[in-house]
Every structure is written in structure tokens, then in C-alpha cells.
Amino acid sequence: MLIKEATAEDWPDIWPFFRRIVAAGDTFTFPPGLGREEGRGWWMLPPPDRTVIAVDDSGTVLGSAKMNRNQRGNGAHVASASYMVDPEHGGRGVGRALVEHTLEWARAAGFRGMQFNAVVETNTRAVELYESLGFEVIGTVPEGFRHPEHGYVGLHIMYCAL
User: Fold this and answer.
1) Where is 42: in which H helix or E strand?
2) CA–CA distance, 55 with 157 (Å, rounded to integer)
3) Residue 86 in contact with residue 61, Cβ under 8 Å?
4) Per-residue confidence (pLDDT) for residue 152, from 0 to 100
5) Low-confidence ranges of the chain (pLDDT < 70)
6) What DSSP string runs through 50-103?
7) pTM listed for this prediction
8) What pLDDT was estimated at residue 77?
9) Which 3 state secondary structure label does DSSP give 10?
10) Which domains, ranges and CATH numbers included, belong to the chain?
11) Dihedral in degrees, nearest 10, Cα atoms 80, 84, 90, 92
12) DSSP 8-class letter at 111
């Protein structure tokens, strides 16, 4: 697996799984009906922020991550990131590789920590992955997320010191 900078030409390969994941409405706070061009603006970040893709030996896009400052100004020393793995390629370590990549990027860029603002508590695979890589739940917004199956569930704020 190779993780590399995403370009505008990669969006058509990201869009199908981005649309599927967002439309499911169970892991991201993005509007479920987000359109292709609007979605591109939400995911394909301009420098100094970054968007990357994970590809296999054949060049198939397996997943993507976006990474950025969590806040501006006096909060700009804390990074944030989001991840999407194509459900067709789940369980192959793509998510772990993407999280590790963003942590390396944040360390190299001089960030002091990485914070996730909105991890749905029912997304247990993601929570367990993040915890295995040093993140901890530092708070939960009760009923902060309207899950399509479980109703109102908590929204974790997770942090990892770098």
C-alpha cells in the first residue's frame, strides 16, 4: 500500500466511497445529501492542509484522509484529521495506515497534538483504532449525533499528544 498526495484527478476515485459513507449517515456529521462538487470542497483541502489517498499495487484507491489545523490563531498548534476507507477494502489495515500517516505528518509539521472533534460513539471500530494509536476520549457530547439506526448517540472528542 502506498499513501500519496491526492490530486484533483483522484476525486473521481474517492467520490464513490465518499458518497456511500456520507449517505449512510452513521459516521460523519456531513450532510447525507452532499453533492459531488460540494463534497470535493469538504474533502479535497488546499495547502497548507492536505488530502492523501492510499492505493494498492494496481493503483486502486483504497481510502483517503484529510489533515488540517484543528483551529486557527492560538489553537493552530493542534492538528485534526478525518478518514474514509472504501467499504470494499475494509479490514486490510488501510485505516490504521492512514491514521499513522497523519500522525507522522502532524509530528513533522510541529503540531503538539491531534484532536478529533466528532467521533460517533457507535463507530466502535474507529474508536478502538484511535485508542490503539494513543488517542483518548477526553469528552463526549451526549446525544451529539443523530444516528439513522440508534437515534441520538454520543459524539466523542478524542485527543493524542504528540
Assistant:
1) helix 36-43
2) 29
3) yes
4) 98
5) none
6) EEEEEE-TT--EEEEEEEEESSSGGGTTEEEEEEEE-GGGTTSSHHHHHHHHHH
7) 0.95
8) 97
9) helix
10) 2-161 (3.40.630.30)
11) -50
12) -
Residue bearing cell 483504532: 129
pLDDT of residue 89: 94
- Cell numbers given for 90: 475494509
The angle formed by the CA atoms of residues 32, 156 and 40, to the nearest 5 degrees, is: 35
d(CA 9, CA 64): 14
How far apart (Å, rounded) are the C-alpha atoms in residues 29 and 120? 9
- Residue 23 has which C-alpha cell? 449517505
Distances in Å between the Cα of 3 and the Cα atoms of 11, 83, 99, 113, 144 are 15, 13, 11, 22, 32
* Residue length of the chain: 162
